[in-house]
Structure formats: C-alpha cells, structure tokens
Amino acid sequence: MIIMEVLQAFRNCLLSRHDVARGWKSQGRRVIGWTCTYTPEEVIYAADALPVMVFGDLSGMKFADAYLPSNSCSFARSCFNAALRGDYDYLDGFVESNSCDNRGKIFDMWAHYTKIPNIYFINTPHTNTEKAHQFFYEEVVKFKEWLQTTLNISISDQSLRKAIEVYNTNRLLLKKVYDLRMKHPPLISGTEALEISLSSTVTPKEEHNKLLNRLLNEISNRSDTPRQGVRLLVTGSVMDNTELIKIIEEVGGNVVADDWCTGSRYFWNLVDLGSEPLRAIASRYLDKIPSSFMYHHEERFKHVVEIAKRYDVEAAIVFVLKFCDTHMFDAPLLRDELKALGLPVLYLEWEHSMSGIAGLKTRIEAFLEMVGGVK
Amino acid sequence: MSQRGLQSTRGFHRNYIKKYYEDAHKAKAEKKPLAWVTSTFPIETLLAMDIVPIWPENYASVCAARQASVELCERAEREGFSRDLCSYSRCVLGSMFGGEKDLPEGGLPKPDFLVTTTCACDTHLKWFQVASRLYKAPLFLLDVPYNISGADSLNLEKAHVDFYVSQSEELFSFLEEQTGTRLDNKRLREVVALSNQTSQLWMEIQDYRRTIPCPMDARDAFSAVFFMLCIPGTHVALEFYTILRDEIRERVKNKVGVVENEKYRLIWDNLPLWFNLKIFEYLNSLGAVVVAETFSHVWAGSLDPSKPLESLARKYLVNFANSSVKRKIDMILNLAKDFNVNGIILPTNWGCRMMSIGETLVRDIVYKKLGISSLIIDVDSSDWRNYNEAQIKDRFETFFETLTRKQ
C-alpha cells in the first residue's frame, strides 16, 4: 500500500540520516549540525549546505560520562556522546545557541573534546523587544558571514528568499499533516507524527516537502488508521526519539497533539516575507512560540492550551527531561494551567536513556486506566 | 604563628547579616520600595534609586548554614519543583509556600517588584518568573549576551556591551514607574564610585593571601564576600573592608597565618558547602589552606563613575558564569601561579549546570599547563541529602596523599 510506503519513507529518513548526510557530502556539498530550534536553518540552506539536527540516542553515555557530570542535561550529554563516538565526524561545522545554561558550557566541551571543526555559537536573546530584535538580527548577519567564510561560498538574497519559501512550505505542509490528528480516531498516530516532524530536521527540505505532499495526497485512502484510544496531549522540551510515544500508544493512548521543540513548536510559525530576508528570518525565530528560556514563556502555555482544545484532547502528559532547568520550572505552572481546563495531567520526569524510560510504562498505563475509567 | 579566625569577622552573622534582614523587614514596614534581585544584576542601579535590594540567594545560604534549607527545599518539591533544580531556588520558593513563623530571619519580605538578568544563569530568570507569578509582582529582565569568546572586560564584543547598555533606558523607566522617583545621575555616579572603592579594597585583601603563611581562610572569605554581592557601593561595606584589610595587613606583617606549616595551598572553585563550613577547619587540620576562591575573585573589576552603565556592563559580562570556560581556566591559571598553589578543589553544584559542566576541562587544561592536580567533588551547596561526609573526607585525604607524593 502506498500510504505505508510513504510513512516508512519518513521513518527511513531518520534511520538512515547519517547515510543521507554522507551521501550529500559525496556530491561535494557540506553538512552543518545544529541542536537548538532557535538556529536559523534557512541561512545554512541558502549556503547550499545541509542543516541537520544533532540527536542523541538511548543507548547509554559511556563516552560522555568521562567528561560531563551526571547532573547535566541528559539530551545534551547524549548528543555529546554521539559526537565522541564519531557518529558526526562528517560535519563541516556545528552550531550551538544560547538557549540554556547547559549549552554555553557544553560549547567548550565540543570545541575541546570532539573532532568536529568549526564550532559556532549564536547568541539568542531571552526577550523579543525591539532591541533584542536588532541584536539578534546582527547575530544572524554574523552567522551568515561565518558560513560564507567557513564554507567559502557567497549567500545571495535570492538564495535566502528561496530558502524561506522552501522552509515555509515545509511548515505549512507539516501543519496540514498535524490537522489529520484532529479526526476521531486520528488519521496518523502520534509515533508517525513525531517521525514526520523529526525527519524534517535531518532531511533536505525539498525532498521532505515531496514526501509530505505524497502523504497528504494518499492519506484519505488509509484503511488501517490508529485505533480509538485516550486522546492525549504531550508537552516538554525536546523529543528526539519515538520510544516514549510508542510506549504510550502501546498501552492505549492516542497522542494527538504535542508541544515539543521538535514537534509543533518547530513549524508552527512562518517567516514573514515582507522585509529584508535576514531580518525576516531573525524575527521569525524571536517571535515564534517561545521555548521556556524566554521572558515571555507564558505564550507557550497559551499555545498548549490552544492545541489542547484544537485537537480535542482528554488528558495530558507533562514530560520533564532530567536537568532541563527551564522546563523543570515551567512544568508545575503548565500542569496547573492544564488542570484548570479540567484535564487530568500526568507529570513525568525522564532520563534520556532506554533504562530511563522503561520504568515509565507502568505509570503511563495506570494513568490511562484512570482516565479511561473517568470517561 | 597560626591563628585561624579573624577578629573582624567574629560575630559577622549577628552584626551584619542579621541586621541586613532586620533592616529589610523594617523597610518593608515603612513601605520603602523593595526589590528582589539576583547575583550579577547591576545592583548599584537599585542602590542609586534608594530601592532596598533583597538578595534571595544569600537567604538560601543563610538557611543552609542554619540547617534549615532542606526542609524548605522539600516544601518546593511538594509543589512539583524538581529535586534536581538549584537548591537556592528551591529553598527560597519553599519559604514562600509555607507559614512564615519558623523561617530563619523571619523569612524574606515580599518584593514590590523583581529584577534579574540572564548574566549568571537562566535559573535566575525561571525562578523569578515563578516568584513573580506567586506574588503578582512585576519582573524586569536585563537580557545579557553570553561571552562565548571568554574575552576580558577590555576586549568584549562591542555589540554585547551596546546591547547591555541600551537596556538601561527600559531598566530605569521600569524602576521609575515602580518607585515614582526619577533617577539622579549624580547619585548613580556616587554609588558606582563607592562600589569601585569597595571592590578595590576587596581585591587588596585578596592579594594579601599570596603571602606564606596565608592570613585568611575560605571560611572568612565566604562570609566577608557578602558585601561585594549584597550591598556593594555602600559606606558600611567600605568601613568593614577597611577594618578587615587593616587586620590582614597586620597579620602579614607579623607573619600570622591560618595554618602554621602550610602543606597544601589550595584554590576552591564555585560555592562552599554552606551547611558545613567546618570542612575548611578540617582541611586546616590536614595542613591545607584555601588561599583563593574563584568566587571571591570573580567580583573584581574596576568601575568608571563617568561611564556607570558601560563599566557595570564590562564588570558583569565577563563573570565566568556568563563566559566560556576558558575565562575560568585563565583565572585559575593566574591564581595558581600568583598564590603558590599546589592543588585545586573543584566542587560541582548538583542543581547548577554552569558550575558543574566544564570542570573536567578546567582539570585537564590546568594539569597540562601547570602540572597542578585538581579534585572534582560532586556536592550541592545547600542540600545535604546526598552528602556523605566520610566519603568526601576520604577523597580529600587521598588527594593530599597524591600531592605529597608529587612533592
């Protein structure tokens, strides 16, 4: 069936992401890694380089543990572990961003202990005032100049406009895919939705757009839609793997809405093409649905409440990644906001490793039983 | 001759810290404008506008020293704040949730407004967002770029200094709105000049600790640094540091040290164990003395009263909390050479990313460049639930054995 093939294609984008990147390199092109969704990817794309999000994995931290303390963000540790193991040796550069206390210091660790050349840091403001906009615009200009020097390439306004167009198309298509989850039962599962949004962060965007169009054309013919289950909203910082969502869906949940930086927050806002391209790009990132490190963090709470209604959810799970300070502070507040909507809320701390998530299954199952019982 | 504690710091808590909180409660009762503030915020701007600054981080350390912090942390944890968060923030949030009767120093007076900055950490912003919500008090954020190159105050990126200084407009209009009074620029210059004097005096005191035997230990330094953080730019700070400097100078003249036969001269990074300051006496008993704390030296920096905001920007932007690890490494390398150091203690802080990440890099580079060994100990400044004294003492003793073998 075509639809299964398309869904498998997204999964493959994730599974073979290192091969895709190496393939891109074998054509004489460059690959730039990034790790925070405040990185203005369009500028990398306009430099004819492939921007790829750096993920960790759940297999353990044996390389990172020698250098990073166990009280540092387990996602960041896991990414660093992958870099030390050599998974990302193909990168021509790596971009960090000032979006949490882990990142600034981990920048030094990448620069000193990994083999990756050209480590760059973007200073992301924590406000979106007029002055912050001007500061960040200048940061994006500097980033463009760094890319031009590092890759020995010139980035034209035209290529920036093209990048914006391709990226905006991707965002609009991803939103349409997410709309499929408004149906009862949803037309795609939460695991599939996450595979689709995550694969966008590592796949050349034009190819990803083609896949998204194919999916949207074929989806109405889908016969094996996910079964009806408890309609869930999941929220948290970053989610770079599908294991947790699989666990939820195995025990009878339908994850129909998410608030990950690699999920809805990744594509919800478009670049407004009205102004000069770099200024438009900078504004998009500063004004998007904020991550928890921003001064106007309560706008994220509004987004979560809005999607809870839009996708007609029955319960929510607030995930807190260990040592992710900014989210650990937000989580109790967000939990209260969701409870105020009358939703049952499960609050789960998780560690970025397989053993860290296996133990969560019982708690999720008990929660879903409780919610199902209430229904 | 050896003499551990200093005369001038005797009764420090009673004479200065207790009084700081009593004055704060009194100011609150008199309806003076009162602001909560975090470290690395240019506190001089508040003092210049006669705003009473309350510094919750100090309060947490006081609670820890009084063995009260864990119970307060637990109160915050019951409200859903993770045990992995900064213990200062948990302790203070906990003090906000419970009844005020049993709190050390009568608890913290409620703020009329809060001011913070991203300079030291994002935790400051997040913690104050929660406090601002709970107290329904407005919050101002001074948004600070991260000094990624590790530049010193003269070589900072111009864009960073400009962005910092440009926000003074918003800051003062916020403060004016909150207090109903206008900023007097002359007064600001006076406070900055006074703060500069305080800081010079503090550094003079630190410089005396190069002497063998070292005249001042970490326990005294971690008390006395209070003025640098909470009320720099005041006459009381200047008077205290003058007395302290005179006493230290006298000790140096008479060759009086903390430890008679110094075997190990140490640098202590990050924070002390506020709940167990006696650990420094234990170190003394092994012939070790802490001759420099990065925490004491990080507040150095001269201020130019004719350019108050720019010099405050330059002072705070280079704080190692806001800078590449390179900056801390440079500081430690210099201290190690200037202070005749033979060992470095790197305590991490469980709830603090920026004090914990990068310590391996400090250890590796300092060893490579100077051949001086470091000891990393995983602790928390104010939450002792995972603290194992026997284990920590064991690590110190093993570390000292290694140092002895090297000598």
SSE layout:
The complex is a heterodimer of chains A (375) and B (407).
Chain A lengths: L1 H14 L1 H10 L3 E5 L6 H6 L2 E5 L20 H12 L7 E5 L3 H13 L5 E4 L7 H22 L5 H23 L10 H11 L4 H14 L11 E6 L7 H8 L2 E7 L4 H4 L9 H11 L10 H13 L4 E7 L3 H16 L4 E6 L3 H5 L1 H15 L1
Parallel strand pairs in A: 1-2, 1-3, 3-4, 5-6, 5-7, 7-8
Chain B lengths: L11 H18 L4 E4 L6 H5 L3 E3 L1 H10 L3 H10 L8 H11 L15 E5 L4 H14 L3 E4 L15 H9 L1 H12 L5 H24 L9 H7 L1 H5 L4 H19 L10 E5 L10 H7 L2 E6 H4 L10 H10 L7 H14 L4 E5 L5 H4 L2 H12 L3 E4 L11 H18 L1
Parallel strand pairs in B: 1-2, 1-3, 3-4, 5-6, 5-7, 7-8
H and E order of chain B: HEHEHHHEHEHHHHHHEHEHHHEHHEH
Number of helices of chain A: 16
% residues in beta strands of chain A? 5-15%
CATH class label of the domain at 19-135 in chain A: Alpha Beta
What is the oligomeric state here?
heterodimer
Q: How many E strands of chain B?
A: 8
Helical content class of chain A: 40-55%
Shape of chain B: globular
Helix content of chain B: 40-55%
Per CATH, the architecture of the largest domain in chain B is 3-Layer(aba) Sandwich
The tally of domains of chain B stands at: 2
Report the count of strand segments of chain A. 8
CATH class of the largest domain in chain B: Alpha Beta
Q: Quick one: which chains have the greatest interface?
A: A-B, 48 and 46 residues
Question: What is the tally of helical segments of chain B?
Answer: 19
Fraction of residues in β-strands of chain B:
5-15%
Radius of gyration of chain A: 20 Å
Q: Could you tell me how far the N terminus lies from the C terminus of chain A, measured between alpha carbons in angstroms?
A: 35 Å
Largest β sheet strand count, sense and barrel closure of chain A: 4 strands, parallel
Q: N-to-C terminal Cα separation of chain B, in Å?
A: 24 Å
